[in-house]
Write a structure and sequence with these properties.
One of its GO terms (molecular function) is oxidoreductase activity. This is NADP-dependent oxidoreductase domain-containing protein. By secondary structure, this protein is an alpha/beta fold. About 45% of the residues lie in helices and about 10% in strands. It starts with a helix and ends in a 13-residue tail after the last helix. The model has no long low-confidence stretch (mean pLDDT about 95).
Length: about 240
């Protein structure tokens, strides 16, 4: 979907890492006329030079949902799983109503629902979050840096510095506002999904595990500030 499967395959080959040490995820964006999800995945597998992926996601409930074919698409995803072409299957950008369509009679519960998640959409996203929690679906967060990248000047600008300062004193090392936001996401029980082309950002992202936990009060302050602005960037027409 992101036109990087060929280059990823080349990078993996150059790394010399065995397949058993890698976790590879790819997505089903959409289908060509008369194409099946299985055929689409096999195209990806050829590009990746792999026999299977660890996680295969439906990128969006549309257009299958509009055509009344979402349940049938999930049935095919289950077949992909049973064939061993994907160790786990999941979804992305699914609302409560979309999840309910595929959960009704599902043989395999989605392993993951990847959604836009940060403090500025937390209140709106809670129904999705709670359903996923109830059904054992892991929430994966993308767009988690939105408050400091795409919503500069928002309510969180006033509260993040003090939290960052407290964490720096506790740790004894510098901490970024991005790491504070990442820590909030992790403490909500979600998985972090991020992209970058800079090695320094990758190091910062990986270093988040070493950042001390936020206090309950700090989590509350972040969410209280987040409720003052609804800023959805990616999940259009979802919430």
């Amino acid at each position: 979907m992101y036109n990087n499967e060929d280059t990823l395959a080349a990078g993996i080959k150059a790394s010399g890492k065995p397949r058993s040490e890698l976790y590879i995820t790819t997505k089903l964006k959409g289908l060509e006329p008369a194409q099946t999800a299985t055929e689409a995945l096999k195209v990806s597998l050829r590009k990746l030079n792999m026999d299977y992926v660890d996680l295969f996601l439906i990128h969006s409930p549309s257009p299958a949902n509009k055509e009344g074919k979402l349940k049938a698409l999930w049935d095919e995803m289950e077949e992909i799983h049973s064939q061993g072409l994907a160790k786990s299957i999941g979804v992305s950008n699914f609302r409560v109503e979309d999840l309910n369509v595929i959960l009704d009679g599902a043989k395999v519960i989605p392993a993951v629902n990847q959604i836009e998640l940060h403090p500025y959409v937390w209140k709106a996203a809670q129904p999705i979050y709670e359903l996923c929690k109830e059904r054992g679906i892991v929430v994966a967060s993308y767009g988690g840096q939105t408050p400091i990248v795409r919503a500069v000047g928002g309510p969180l600008d006033a509260v993040l510095p003090a939290i960052r300062e407290r964490l720096e004193k506790t740790r004894g090392e510098p901490i970024t506002s991005g790491q504070v936001l990442s820590k909030w996401i992790l403490q909500k029980g979600a998985i972090l999904v991020t992209t970058t082309s800079k090695a320094s950002r990758i190091k910062e992202f990986l270093d988040t595990k070493n950042v001390p936990n936020l206090t309950e009060e700090e989590v509350h302050v972040i969410e209280e500030a987040g409720e003052k602005l609804h800023k959805r960037v990616y999940m259009r027409h979802v919430f």
